[in-house]
Amino acid sequence: MVRKELVNLLEKNIILFGKLSERLHRDQIRFDGYSRQQVQFLVRLHISGKTRLKDLAAREFIPAPNLCTMFRKLERDGLVLRVVDDSDRRNTWYSVSETGASVANKFIDMFHCAVAEVFKNIGKEDENELINAFKSINTIFLKMESENA
Predict the structure, then answer these.
(1) pLDDT tens-digit profile of 65-109?
(2) Which stretches of 24-119 are assigned E, i.e. beta strand?
(3) Does the model's pTM come out above 0.70?
(4) d(CA 62, CA 58)
(5) Domain layout of the chain by residue ranges
(6) Could you say which architecture CATH assigns to the domain 4-118?
């Protein structure tokens, strides 16, 4: 069983990261006519690469029909490409177009600038401590993910 201290710290950090995320998205990033969710999925698709709709839906815990609806505008605007698999028509592949990659990179750059602004006054010692903590967290989470895959 997971220890109570771990659960409490995780809960507090999730709340803090949620507040930080809201601040970053609210104060720093303009979405240029797209919903936050559309932008987030465009960026995730750009980072993860070509994927099947059903895999993306499972990974994001969103029903596939909802993803289709959300991607429709992105596809219509030429940011997302949709290809039905010729060998198995039940599979639909989504990827980011060249234009979509450019837009995704724009939002990634804006996010990086927003993060830099939030952390501009942090001391070098605190920054190094956060970097080391995040590296440890990432290592543990990746290990957990590979063991549970």
Answers:
(1) 888 888 888 999 999 999 888 888 878 889 999 999 999 999 899
(2) 51-52, 80-84, 92-96
(3) yes
(4) 7
(5) 4-118, 121-149
(6) Orthogonal Bundle (1.10)
